[in-house]
Batch of 3 targets.
Target 1
Amino acid sequence: MENKRVAVIGGGLGALSGAIRLAQLGFSVQLFEKNPKIGGKVNEVVLEDYRFDTGASLLTMPFVIDELFDFAGFKRSDYLDFVPIDPICRYFFPDGSMMDASADKSKMETAIAQLSPNDVKAYKRFLKYAERIHNLTAEIFMFTPIHEFRKLMRPRYFRTLFRLHQIDPFRTVHQSVSRFFSDPRLVQLFDRYATYNGSDPFQAPATLNIIPYIEYGLGGYYIKGGIYRLVDALEAVARERGVQIRTSAEVERICCVHKRVNGVQVNGETVDADYVLCGADAVVAYHELILTKNATPASMLKARVLGQGHQHQREKVNQLEPSLSGMVFLWGLKGKHPKLAHHNIIFSSDYNTEFRQIFKHQQVPDEPTIYIAITSKADAAHAPVDGENWFVLLNMPYLAPGQQWEKEKVRMRAVVLDRLKQLGFDIADRIEVEQIYTPEDFAELYASNRGGIYGVSSNSKTTAFKRLPNRSRLLKGLYFAGGSVHPGGGIPLVMLSGKMAATLIAEDHK
Ligand SMILES: Cc1cc2nc3c(=O)[nH]c(=O)nc-3n(C[C@H](O)[C@H](O)[C@H](O)COP(=O)(O)OP(=O)(O)OC[C@H]3O[C@@H](n4cnc5c(N)ncnc54)[C@H](O)[C@@H]3O)c2cc1C
């Protein structure tokens, strides 16, 4: 195969998945990651005797990973052990009640019956409705690069378009969930799924109700040893297939001649390539990599060659609303908490205000919903015998003027500890190790657009189409993977974006 060099930007899961596929297809692949290790937002930290996943904590659609291993000629079970989580999550409601949610239908129905007997039937109907959305949309919106017109020319996709009303795009998640459930606690529980791709249940289209089906219909998993083991495994497979991985290697510029990429500039050095697969946030890339961060006269000249098209593309990407960001507390704690499960959510008492503050005003919510994941419940080695490793995540707005994160992290720490104390978890004096991440840290660490943790939000009915395509319209030879492009954020979707980008490169190469 001639002209087959691919430069991959970033070691996030989207780019890494694409790199493996391209190497398996015979391309010569070099991957450049600015950080000392790969994985991007799927990251891990060890603080003394405590080990933490610092990003993703729940794995869905594990078959996406299996398929990648198969494609590369490996057996996933030789590398990774997927553990179904049951309960998937323990919910604590503001009125003091609790509920264990499960992918096991009868357990879930029993849990709902204890909370709100009238809503058991509603749950069955809701799950059927969510499954229908899944069946109608998954192939076209999750597994197909929808910006490629020729890929949409299939009769069954037309059928989907004719049945658009059945995927519920005109109501919001909240409006739709409220039609099913009478108990406000269940409305709050199912509204929350919009946040799993960084969106607001009060704005995002009800089509996102596909997410509860993915969790309850297909299951939620943990990876033995921690979610970061996925990165280790993919790194091993990538190296085995010949991908050259360079860490502490920041790409400063995507080089091009006459609107066609011809390499990247990395730590000042030019690396020639026939194709570039960009796994860095595409919005940031359009601003900083294509028009060069350290502009030299020569690169500015190239920029002028890109001219109007690039300006137009930049304006377009500016209109994309970043996803939610987050504030994370890693706490290594003395003591065990049997009242908590592996995954826990402590709801705020006023969800509407929480989301209005986050999404409409880009403010830190006064009363945040608190998510706690404790992997030492599944992997005892992640904490000392008498301790636990708490990963605490709060939804936060993306970066906007006027925010003061140094102050806010102190304030939020006190708010969270206070709320936990009310629930009987008086942990303030038992925190042995601590690390805190704010949206500024996410922006800095992973070069994510305004600190968004999932890429682009799905707060408008048209986001699925407006999200950036996997193939650049501006430069020939440039492709994108990762949460900021189609099909969106979250482990399985970014891995699918890597598949789409690699497939397009291979097709175009032919
Ligand atoms: C706190 C948190 C909780 C989450 N929870 C879940 C969850 O439970 N389940 C789930 O499925 N998903 C979850 N997610 C989302 C999921 O982790 C992400 O959607 C996914 O990992 C993003 O992958 P990506 O391919 O977009 O790359 P990213 O992870 O964004 O990585 C991009 C990489 O590119 C590198 N890079 C950027 N610019 C350059 C450059 N110029 N040169 C070289 N390298 C560069 C960055 O350093 C980074 O390593 C969570 C994310 C966070 C942060």
Target 2
Amino acid sequence: MGSDDGPPALSAAEALSAYTVMVQARAVDDRLWQLSRQGRAHFVITSAGHEATQVGMALAIRAGHDYVVPYYRDMALVLALGQTPRDLLLHAMGRAADPASGGRQMYGHFSSRARRIVSGSSSVGSHLVHAVGLAFALRIGGERDTAVVTSFGEGATAEGAWHEALTIAGIQRLPVVFVCESNQYAISMPHHAEVPVADVALKAAGYGMPGEVVDGNDLRAVALAMRRAMARARADGGPTLLECKTYRLRPHSNADDDRRYRAAAEVDAWRARDPIGRFGEVLVREYGVAPAVLAQIAGQARAEVDQATLDADAAPAPHPATIADHVFGTVAGAAPRSEDQRHA
Ligand SMILES: Cc1ncc(C[n+]2csc(CCOP(=O)(O)OP(=O)(O)O)c2C)c(N)n1
Ligand SMILES: [Mg+2]
């Protein structure tokens, strides 16, 4: 229950704020693709279509308390946890003030120490091992009542690291919620060519944890399933695998042409199930929100993203003298660099 057909599971305030973040994420997404076409953002990736899954997840996470180890597609998730469009634009445009990496990492490596968002590695699936190690460290350190959430695509479940992470989490009964954003493709590779069973959730049995299929385009269904899984993790009930079935509405990245492997009719059918339009209808029908309020939210999101773009555009690039900062093996201040001297 609590799906689009069930009773309201969220307060009116929660529902409106969740909707606002979904719209904001789509507005940032739209802008990223424009910037990429203009050559002003070198690499962009999309969360379009995944917003209900990601914002639904956030509704069960205590930002700054629980740890989140996201993957590159989780723009709506990090916005819901408190990052801003400006943070994301600075990251996409590689600026020095980029809070994720000071303009070092390619787009999608979100991180925030204050919000306990841990930067992922670029190697698909490898961040699950980090999430599990983190949960193990929390237990050893005696930190109770804190859960770790990690997300990934269905393609990642074919990786060795995925198997290792779920094995240890299952054996040690660690407080981890594994969320698969199951969107039917790993770039061009369809589900059946990478996952030997129809549902990723079925794999959970092999790791001694419950697995559940969730409608990933239904914000409330995701929020409810996540709340159950987080409650289990916090009560020392062990890990959970949730599979949120969804679809990405854009190509994988700006380096991908999805027309080569997806039929237009398939994409159109999923556009008709766009999670934002769907939840907007719920707001109007069940929460009595006026359509004009939804239009206002969309206008505000666009204005905020316009301002964030101007801010990021005007922000300086990382200084060349800082090129070796944070690189393993270099010691800050040890190697005099000509750029340091020129700008001293
Ligand atoms: C080990 C590894 N193999 C391949 C890649 C290239 N790659 C990046 S994302 C991706 C697709 C992953 O698909 P999925 O896990 O389903 O997530 P989605 O992108 O669909 O959300 C691939 C193959 C990589 N980064 N790392
Ligand atoms: Mg996928």
Target 3
Amino acid sequence: MRKPKRKLQIIAANCIACGRCEAECPFDAIHVEGDVAVIDYDECTACGKCVKECPTDCLFFEGEEAKAKEEKPAVAADLAADVVARLSQYHGVWIFVEQSNGEAHPVSWELLGKGRQLADTLGCELAAVVLGEGVNDVARQAGHYGADKAYVIDDPVLAKYRTYPYAEGCLKLVREYRPEIMLIGATTLGRDLSGAIATDLHTGLTADCTGLEIDELTRLLRQTRPAFGGNIMATIQCKEHRPQMATVRPRVMEALAPDESREVEIVRETLEINEQDIGVEIVEFRPDADLDKPNLQYAEIICAGGRGLGTPQGFKLMAELAEALGGVVGASRATVDAGWISHDYQVGQTGYTVRPRLYIAAGISGAIQHRVGMQTADTIVAINSDPEAPIFNIADFGIVGDLYKVVPELIKQAKEGNLKEKLLGDGG
Ligand SMILES: Cc1cc2nc3c(=O)[nH]c(=O)nc-3n(C[C@H](O)[C@H](O)[C@H](O)COP(=O)(O)OP(=O)(O)OC[C@H]3O[C@@H](n4cnc5c(N)ncnc54)[C@H](O)[C@@H]3O)c2cc1C
């Protein structure tokens, strides 16, 4: 490595060992040892990232000591201590449990599964936030799926979702009990609610996370999501505001198996809002199920077609295969953009995230934006005429060939034999 032109220095007495420099350093060149950060000059490139990140200005480049001292390190340290003291009032991982007519959205249980891991790593409590009317059962179920505690607001004004009373309910709970982390499902409701809450709390919100982990050094939530059109994965941290908020799409995380013997501690709160205070009235509610839309997210078997189908009629073949296997049709964005099928069928970054037991991809190249939506399927079968197609890298079974020859054969086998069982490797 070329010797850097400037040399990093540290005022050890001012270091609060917060670990931010270590977390930011792209070269693994600075480490907190005991109560001070130690620079590894063999690795340091003097890029300056740690200098910018240091909250007490104890890092500086040689020759710039005066500037570092001028920054009144004592005041800077007080400020940092103030931030640390403020943040330390926040404890616990919270999951917003989305429910409709007393039935929870499965994404809530998936988030409790992830929340359990995060809470165990942090050594803190996992709590569910349950708002609605007549939601005691939902709160109890939250315990079955991993919650230690459920904060419940049961009120007629919460019978159907409206932004204002739901946001007010969540804000009241957050301000009173101060969670460190709050996760919400990236559903239509969750996207609306999370933005309203984060704005009011002046905290950060990372939408559509695909990964959530605790940084062991700083205890911050590492929130990973695709960025720049899905070409890179960005890890985002909310360092100075609480709660750290993130949304996660359905089927990205895995729910724990429910344990009905698990008890949950219920904390009841009230909401002082009258119907007259709410400027929105719900006239009619039509669930997706009534609109004849496919339930892709929770389908067990998906037979997806891509541009390789060549024409919109190709989806008739995919529908025939789906019917023979007892599944539903899915699609790549290229086919949706071409107008061959509606967006309700699109799998991927800008479509649905799915986690079926069996995913058959016919004539789909396997672009990263498609893969992020389906790669957690238990079994992936890829059919493509190009042996180099990236979809084969994640396929459990790869068939190189013309889909118009392969798919009819699969349909025949599905109708006559036990293709499903063979592909799933079990009796189901
Ligand atoms: C911001 C952004 C978001 C996106 N979101 C999504 C998303 O949500 N979902 C998504 O799918 N894409 C998404 N895309 C688009 C993505 O990058 C790809 O362009 C798209 O997935 C390609 O679709 P495809 O695989 O059907 O088509 P292609 O990439 O054109 O692949 C067609 C495949 O069919 C094969 N083929 C051709 N003829 C046959 C045949 N007769 N038999 C067998 N195989 C054949 C070819 O070898 C080829 O591999 C997004 C892109 C961007 C920039």
